[in-house]
């Protein structure tokens, strides 16, 4: 293993930016795919004649695969090399995208989304490891700002691109669009990433894998089944949750025994890492869970096209675009405890508008609120992740990024499941229409369900002749259901202020910095693969 001291310059040179370009391209594919699919859920409902809870598995299956494979990425990166593994992940994601486009049923689509997730799950943690090793941790704030580019492009272009492709072509193209990007990313990675050298690897924790990966998959499966069953008492919910939870608890107790555990929970001895991950976890549950509902409101309650819904969500990404580069630079100079709380105030202010939703709420008000939320989002995620990783040693970065990413995915899965359960439960409370049943399930159709369906398929009002006042009443009920769900998300955002209050408010020395006043001056050995 060759070693060299990390340069003291805080600027990102051409060599670092070349490597960053590979990582950003892979992250764009992964994140774009999530946001593109979010606007396609109503389309999947009509195309495959499936319920919302069923088509939501196209998101959940992807996330389950991500959560299952992320714990392996840290060990695999050391064993096989980051370049080889990153290219395998790119190839798997691209192949999965092509298979998704061939799906003839919702079951097939969910299965291929799992394949896609197995590749996508490794892209972000591997990308963070590659970039941190390339530039050194004294520039990690700027690096996070660069890695934030796909997080900006995803919310802006994903829904717009997805909506446009569905409107002018078909849903198949939201997956086919990944094929040329994947091929370009693979060629770019081969040319730009440093060569991997064969190195002795630490032993693999097979016992830990047998507990953690199935445990996470079972637990998240149980949570994600809640929207379909509507009750925790169903065996499809509590049994996998209980079994998965027991395996995860067993892993936590076991993980402090081996020298090289699958997921290194010893890193939580680092106070900054602990506070940052707890803050991020609570925030992700609220923000990612509610984020899936924004396009659904515009599509189902307001009757907009998928393209229009995508355009209406774009202000959120534009707001983040303005603040994320600034927040990245500040994270290298100003303690995150002094900036993140102000960003959270903006998010809470924007969220509050959505707790007051109606059937005719001003688009100017909603778009303005999304823009304000975006401003806060840009000043929250990257600084928190910077705080989590900045004080780790070089040997801990890969394991630290794995830990951060898996908690992100768990938080996102829990948030999506919780918000879906609340919304589904609220909508099911609507008044049933006498003598009218759902053609797909045979269950009585409620006023809210018929009103939502008629927004996308106006011909249903002819198939089920009902007075206009019933449709209006159903839409009012649906809007109130969304409002109630956003109240829960708003409460979780407020809860984030508690751990955020403990984020570092003083500049603390990094274990890896060399050259900053008052900090460790020793050169840092960085492995060159």
From TrEMBL:
CDD domains: MFS_LmrB_MDR_like. Keywords: Cell membrane, Membrane, Transmembrane, Transmembrane helix, Transport. It is found in: Cell membrane. Residues 508-529 are annotated as: Disordered. Residues 508-523 have a biased composition (Basic and acidic residues). It is a multi-pass membrane protein. The chain crosses the membrane at residues 12-32, 52-73, 85-104, 110-131, 143-166, 172-194, 206-225, 237-254, 275-294, 306-327, 339-357, 363-382, 484-503. Residues 19-508 form the Major facilitator superfamily (MFS) profile domain. InterPro entries: EmrB-like, MFS, MFS_dom, MFS_trans_sf. Its main location: membrane. PROSITE patterns: MFS. This is DHA2 family efflux MFS transporter permease subunit. It comes from Micromonospora aurantiaca.
């Amino acid at each position: 293993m060759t070693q060299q001291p990390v340069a003291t310059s805080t600027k990102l040179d051409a060599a670092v930016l070349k490597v960053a370009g590979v990582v950003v391209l892979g992250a764009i594919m992964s994140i774009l795919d999530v946001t593109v699919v979010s606007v396609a859920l109503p389309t999947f409902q009509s195309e495959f004649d499936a319920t919302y809870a069923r088509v939501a598995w196209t998101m959940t299956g992807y996330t389950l695969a991500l959560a299952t494979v992320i714990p392996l990425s840290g060990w695999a990166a050391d064993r096989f090399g980051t370049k080889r593994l990153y290219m395998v992940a790119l190839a798997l994601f691209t192949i999965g995208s092509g298979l998704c486009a061939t799906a003839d049923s919702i079951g097939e689509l969910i299965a291929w989304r799992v394949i896609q997730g197995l590749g996508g799950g490794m892209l972000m943690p591997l990308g963070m490891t590659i970039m941190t090793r390339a530039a050194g941790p004294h520039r990690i704030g700027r690096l996070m700002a660069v890695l934030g580019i796909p997080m900006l492009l995803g919310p802006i272009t994903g829904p717009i691109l997805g909506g446009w492709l569905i409107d002018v072509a078909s849903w198949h193209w939201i997956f086919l669009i990944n094929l040329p990007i994947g091929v370009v990313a693979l060629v770019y990675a081969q040319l730009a990433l440093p060569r991997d050298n064969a190195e002795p690897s630490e032993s693999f924790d097979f016992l830990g894998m047998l507990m953690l990966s199935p445990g996470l998959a079972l637990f998240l499966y149980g949570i994600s089944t809640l929207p379909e069953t509507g009750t925790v008492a169903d065996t499809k919910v509590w049994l996998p949750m209980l079994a998965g939870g027991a395996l995860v608890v067993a892993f936590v107790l076991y993980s402090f025994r081996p020298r090289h555990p699958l997921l290194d929970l010893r890193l939580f001895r680092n106070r900054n890492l602990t506070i940052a991950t707890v803050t991020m976890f609570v925030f992700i549950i609220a923000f990612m869970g509610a984020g899936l509902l924004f396009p659904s409101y515009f599509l189902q309650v307001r009757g907009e096209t998928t393209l229009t819904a995508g355009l209406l969500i774009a202000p959120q990404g534009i707001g983040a675009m303005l603040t994320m580069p600034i927040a990245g630079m500040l994270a290298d100079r100003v303690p995150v405890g002094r900036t993140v709380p102000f960003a959270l105030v903006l998010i809470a202010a924007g969220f509050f508008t959505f707790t007051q939703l109606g059937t005719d709420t001003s688009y100017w008000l909603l778009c303005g609120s999304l823009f304000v939320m975006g401003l806060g989002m840009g000043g929250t995620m990257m600084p928190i992740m910077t705080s989590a990783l900045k004080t780790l040693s070089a040997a801990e970065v890969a394991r630290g990024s794995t830990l951060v990413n898996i908690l992100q995915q768990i938080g996102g899965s829990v948030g999506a499941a919780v918000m879906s359960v609340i919304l589904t439960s609220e909508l099911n409370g609507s008044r049933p229409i006498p003598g009218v049943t759902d053609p797909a399930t045979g269950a009585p159709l409620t006023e809210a369900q018929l009103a939502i369906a008629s927004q996308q398929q106006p011909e249903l009002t002819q198939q089920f002749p009902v007075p206009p006042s019933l449709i209006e009443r159903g839409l009012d009920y649906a809007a109130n259901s969304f409002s109630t769900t956003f109240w829960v998300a708003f409460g979780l955002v407020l809860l984030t202020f508690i751990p955020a209050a403990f984020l570092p408010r003083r500049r603390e020395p990094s274990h890896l910095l060399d050259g900053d006043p008052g900090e460790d001056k020793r050169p840092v050995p960085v492995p060159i693969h």
